[in-house]
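Issue 218. Parser rejects a valid record. Input:
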Amino acid sequence: MDRREFSALLPALCLLLNEADGQSAERTEPYTKGTPTRGPVGGPLSGPLRPVENGVYTPGPAYGTPPQRYSNRLLAGVMQVGSMQLDIHESRQEAGTPQEAVIVHPHNKIWLMREGVAELMTAGVVRTMRAGDIGFCKGGDPHWMRNIGHGPCAYFVVTIGPVQG
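Output the parser choked on:
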């Protein structure tokens, strides 16, 4: 995915974040009532991914290494436009949690910091993130996240990239 293709996805990401924050754009009637969709089971993604549908997604069960570091997947699937894989989860690290292992994968990754202070390493450069900051790592670059605060840090992770599997 080049920068133009990625830029074309940003409005959809902003819309998703706006909806998740309860500040959805004004709509006209008629409304159809729906039920939130439970996030997929946590852990590594396995099996064929379903197309991403319109809706409200709630967190799935925790996975990772609770209580120090864990995540709750909200959404995982294939976007119909562009046939790109989308994975969104919320992660939490307690103070003093050891640094994550260095990760490299073909997906672009976006971190949206909700709470606390963390260090984000992308492509060998370490930067500090605070609540409200957004971090980005392009696919193929090494990265990790580490809580450097005195309390917990929490952040949303959005990965967008080629369908794997």
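Fixed in the parser; the record now loads. The CA atoms of residues 19 and 25 lie 8 Å apart.
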